[in-house]
């Protein structure tokens, strides 16, 4: 079987060759260029947008501080390169990391010497350069695919839309896997359709390479497998029944070859570590793998064992973890509107309107292009997944695949418009202008719907706006102002500056609901000026300690501990899981109390609070309370080593401390809340 060919689909094994005889011919219902000047103008606009977007990504890579995840991505890949180790149990943040950052580690080690500037800045920029390269390849991919489907006008417009997408630019400027996965996923979808359209060894190998790279990059590559099947069904649907059966058999063979190649790429990506290791060599978190390992502990892994542990951990976490969703000024459980809200707030207004117009134009004309139909159904599948099934709603970055597909299809739709050159010009000017204030800080981008910008925290948080990309700059800005504080345990008299993500902590609920911010710092931090009256109102409302029966029961056992001189606390690292310190405070009269950190870090909370909701403090930080007369219990645990601090109050205040044990639930015995009545 030499292959099969669909009507209206261009025969191009590399997906980028000539579309039809004559470079200006109309393709898939898209009008050809109306003039040579229109052709040159659209090409120039697309090229300018590409240069601007790559330049913006480079500038952000230069100026932004290290973000929350980058060090962990680099550490996992650096260890793999240095020792070949891939295990995840030794460090919590390795649970979802993959070898995808190996190019970033190599760039950090070898490319930084060719850059200018202080060494820390050079190393940071060098580490981020591969991600910018993946973004450049993604832009090339969208141009090639749109040209493959609908011709040069659509290619230029799809490239324009994709290049103007600030969330792609933002995530191209840091060491994470989201842009790399968007690229490998897009290439996998293209390769799957190409193989289904015309089976052959070359296309089978390309699909295997792309799919293998996607699985090396991110565990959610499993989402691509149903779409590979969808591509096959769409192509087979257009064939007569006898030829369909022959084609299905041939496709099964070539897809099998692709699967073998993908497996080899996956194993090579992990350095062949753990291939063939028995399931009993790892601890499993999810029920399916626990069951399988229990039934057949001798069973050997056909893939790198820590690829399986990564899938196991991330799947179990995604289903069972209580994800804090930071939107609309409150902490929610996962909500269906999370990603639509992110799109509405983080897409330039002109670009959002262009996407809607392009998708509407495409839907209205109902083109018969099978590749276009495949791209549209892929977009719907990803959108449905993120709306209904995805629970780790901690950033827009997870949904870059549907963002890419929307730009691709909208570009094809806009190419059908009569005044597409004027639309493209207006789009470039308006969308670029809206992003100018965020140059060097694209992660914090929000559109003009969010106004004033100091109120952005009332709409969204987490890595969509504050990924700690401005942390060092915010600290320097705070240090330059006398009496200002960055991310205090809670508001204090004077100037308080909070990263938006930290502002969503439960101890700041009162601040978000009652205080008006004075300003913002680089869009990711919010500034509050607090006077003495406001601080007193806050203490009375949020930091009041009222003595109760539980405090008396916990603090007056028969073996009560001696009083600590001066309220001095010295807490060693916990001897085991759930081991914490119960601090008992006797206040003969109403008084303000302060927990002052001196050395090390500690978590603290009330007996009725679950461990995971405790606040934390460190050297130089203070936590104030307003204590009513009586006995008050506070729980304390040392973090990252020992902690030393003191509790200060009126001279008559006395402090005792003794070790206690939390239950597995994170509560003290007898303090776990009763389940709600049905």
Summarize it:
The chain has helices spanning 36-63, 70-83, 102-110, 119-150, 152-163, 166-171, 178-197, 201-217, 224-237, 241-269, 287-295, 305-320, 338-346, 349-365, 370-389, 400-414, 420-435, 471-479, 500-503, 509-514, 532-542, 549-555, and strands at residues 325-327, 330-332, 485-486, 494-499, 519-521, 525-530, 544-545, 568-571, 579-587, 591-605, 615-617, 622-627, 630-648, 654-661.
Question: Mind explaining what this structure looks like?
Answer:
With 678 residues, this protein is α+β, with helices and mostly antiparallel strands. It folds into three domains: 36-434, no CATH class; 444-542, no CATH class; 546-661, Jelly Rolls. 47% of the residues lie in helices and 13% in strands. The protein is built from 22 helices and 14 strands. It has helices at residues 36-63, 70-83, 102-110, 119-150, 152-163, 166-171, 178-197, 201-217, 224-237, 241-269, 287-295, 305-320, 338-346, 349-365, 370-389, 400-414, 420-435, 471-479, 500-503, 509-514, 532-542, 549-555, and strands at residues 325-327, 330-332, 485-486, 494-499, 519-521, 525-530, 544-545, 568-571, 579-587, 591-605, 615-617, 622-627, 630-648, 654-661. Strands 7, 8, 9, 10, 11, 12, 13 and 14 form an eight-stranded mixed sheet that branches. A four-stranded mixed sheet has the order 3-4-6-5. A hairpin with a 2-residue loop joins strand 1 (325-327) and strand 2 (330-332). Helix 1 (36-63) runs antiparallel to helix 4, helix 5 (152-163) crosses helix 16 (400-414) and helix 9 (224-237) runs antiparallel to helix 15 (370-389). The radius of gyration is 29 Å and the shape is globular. Mean pLDDT is 90; it is low at 5-27.
């Amino acid at each position: 079987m030499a292959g099969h060919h669909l009507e209206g689909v261009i025969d191009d094994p590399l997906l980028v060759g000539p579309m039809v005889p004559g470079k200006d011919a109309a393709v898939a219902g898209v009008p050809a260029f109306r003039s040579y000047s229109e052709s040159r103008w659209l090409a120039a606009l697309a090229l300018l947008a590409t240069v601007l977007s790559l330049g913006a990504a480079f500038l952000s890579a230069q100026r932004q501080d290290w973000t929350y995840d980058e060090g962990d991505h680099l550490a996992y890949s650096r260890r793999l390169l240095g020792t070949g180790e891939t295990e995840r149990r030794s460090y919590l943040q390795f649970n979802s990391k993959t070898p995808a950052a190996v190019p970033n580690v190599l760039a950090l080690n070898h490319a930084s010497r060719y850059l200018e500037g202080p060494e820390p800045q050079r190393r940071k920029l060098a580490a981020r350069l591969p991600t910018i390269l993946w973004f450049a390849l993604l832009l090339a991919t969208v141009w090639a695919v749109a040209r493959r489907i609908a011709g040069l006008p659509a290619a230029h417009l799809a490239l324009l839309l994709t290049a103007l997408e600030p969330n792609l630019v933002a995530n191209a400027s840091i060491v994470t896997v989201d842009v790399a996965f968007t690229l490998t996923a897009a290439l996998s979808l293209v390769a799957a359709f190409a193989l289904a359209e015309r089976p052959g060894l070359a296309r089978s190998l390309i699909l295997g390479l792309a799919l293998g790279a996607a699985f090396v990059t991110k565990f959610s590559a499993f989402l691509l497998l149903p779409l590979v099947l969808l591509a096959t069904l769409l192509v087979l649907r257009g064939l007569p029944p006898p030829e369909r059966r022959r084609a299905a058999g041939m496709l099964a063979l070539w897809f099998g070859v692709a699967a073998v190649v993908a497996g080899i790429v996956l194993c090579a990506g992990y350095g062949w570590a753990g291939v063939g290791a028995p399931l009993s060599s790892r601890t499993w978190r999810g029920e399916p793998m626990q069951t399988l390992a229990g039934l057949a502990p001798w069973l050997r892994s056909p893939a790198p064992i820590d690829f399986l542990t990564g899938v196991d951990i991330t799947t179990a976490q995604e289903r069972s973890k209580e994800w804090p969703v930071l939107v609309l000024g409150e902490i929610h459980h996962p909500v269906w509107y999370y990603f639509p809200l992110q799109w509405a707030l983080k897409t330039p207004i002109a670009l959002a309107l262009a996407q809607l117009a392009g998708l509407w134009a495409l839907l209205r004309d109902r083109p018969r292009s099978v590749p276009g139909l495949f791209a549209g159904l892929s977009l719907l599948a990803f959108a449905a997944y993120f709306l209904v099934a995805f629970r780790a709603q901690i950033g827009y970055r997870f949904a870059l695949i549907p963002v890419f597909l929307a730009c691709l299809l909208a570009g094809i739709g806009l190419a059908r418009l009569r005044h597409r050159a004027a639309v493209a010009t207006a789009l470039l000017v308006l969308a670029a202008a809206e992003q100018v204030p965020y140059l060097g800080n694209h992660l914090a981008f929000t559109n003009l719907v969010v106004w004033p910008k100091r109120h952005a925290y009332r709409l969204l948080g987490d890595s969509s706006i504050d990924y700690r990309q401005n942390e060092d700059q915010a600290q320097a800005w705070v240090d330059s102002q006398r009496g200002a504080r960055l991310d205090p345990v809670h508001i204090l008299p004077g100037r308080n500056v909070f990263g938006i993500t930290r502002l969503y902590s439960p101890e700041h609920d009162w601040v978000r609901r009652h205080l008006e911010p004075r300003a913002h710092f680089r869009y990711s931090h919010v500034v509050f000026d607090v006077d003495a009256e406001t601080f007193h109102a806050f203490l009375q409302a949020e930091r009041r300690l009222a003595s109760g029966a539980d405090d008396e029961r916990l603090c007056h056992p028969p073996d009560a501990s001696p009083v600590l001189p001066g309220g001095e606390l010295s807490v060693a690292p916990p001897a085991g899981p759930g081991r914490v310190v119960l601090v008992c405070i006797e206040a003969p009269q109403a008084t303000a109390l302060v927990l002052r950190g001196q050395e090390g870090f500690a978590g603290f909370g009330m007996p009725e609070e679950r461990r995971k909701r405790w606040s934390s403090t460190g050297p130089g930080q203070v936590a104030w309370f307003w204590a009513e007369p009586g006995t008050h219990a506070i729980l304390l645990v040392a973090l990252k080593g020992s902690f030393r601090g003191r509790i200060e109050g009126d001279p008559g205040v006395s402090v005792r401390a003794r070790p206690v044990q939390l239950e597995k639930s994170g509560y003290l015995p007898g303090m776990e809340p009763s389940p709600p009545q049905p």
